[in-house]
Design goal:
GO terms for molecular function: DNA-binding transcription factor activity; transcription cis-regulatory region binding. Residues 41-60 bind DNA. Keywords: DNA-binding, Transcription, Transcription regulation. This protein is an all-alpha fold. The chain has two domains: 8-61, Orthogonal Bundle (Arc Repressor Mutant, subunit A); 68-199. It is built from eight helices and no strands. α1 (15-34) crosses α2, α1 packs across α5 (94-120) and α5 (94-120) crosses α7 (156-170). The radius of gyration is 19 Å and the shape is elongated. The protein starts with 14 loop residues before the first helix and ends with a helix. The mean pLDDT is 87.
Length: 201
């Protein structure tokens, strides 16, 4: 009697396996970004990762499992980057914290775009989307506390900061305005809100 197909990725125990999984996930991000989730094939992803198709299926038995792993990876990378910003010692002043948030946005912009397209395709992580949002609000609240302010009795300042970050994530590239100028304005918007939230008790 055959066992049912796995619904989760295989976690490699050796560094070589972890490196291969990372290469597969990076390749999947690129392929999903170039094509729709439906149009992308596991064969293309394996080729882009320079790995055998059998090796890909060993770690990710279906395309759904691979896509879900990308969602997990994005959430983990985003929270880790925010943790580094929050835990900076000494605490960063509002201008530097705003620049740090923009750096995270720029570093993960492409990955976030792919993740959103996967969610639009119906890929879900049961009970995880709300958990990630709650964790992100928590990180924003911690950042405000480190700046000397308070997220508010109902986390409304932390929620607003998260929405500002999301809005900057989704801003289209306006080629009539030089990228450095756009980035400067984004930092200014974040800095002004951080200063406001830090001053509000």
């Amino acid at each position: 009697m055959s066992s049912p197909p796995r619904s989760s990725p295989l976690a490699p125990k050796r560094q070589r396996g972890r490196d291969r999984v990372e290469a597969i996930l990076a390749a999947a991000t690129t392929v999903f970004g170039e094509k729709s989730y439906e149009a992308a094939t596991m064969t293309e992803i394996a080729a882009r990762a320079s790995t055998a198709i059998g090796s890909l299926y060993r770690f990710f038995p279906t395309k759904d499992v691979l896509a879900a792993a990308l969602l997990e990876r994005y959430g983990a990378r985003l929270l880790h980057a925010l943790d580094e910003l929050v835990d900076h010692d000494p605490p960063l002043p509002p201008r530097d914290a705003a620049q740090g948030l923009l750096d995270i946005i720029q570093r993960l912009r492409t990955e976030r775009s792919v993740v959103l397209s996967l969610l639009d395709s119906g890929i879900t992580l049961p009970d995880r989307t709300g958990t990630l949002r709650k964790a992100l609000i928590g990180r924003m609240g911690q950042l405000l506390l480190r700046l000397g302010g308070s997220p508010g009795p109902h986390d409304e300042r932390a929620v607003m900061l998260l929405h500002l970050v999301k809005a900057i994530f989704t801003l289209p590239q306006d080629h009539s305005v030089p990228r450095p100028a756009q980035d400067k304005e984004a930092v200014t918007v974040l800095q002004l809100y951080l200063e406001h939230a830090a001053a509000s008790r």
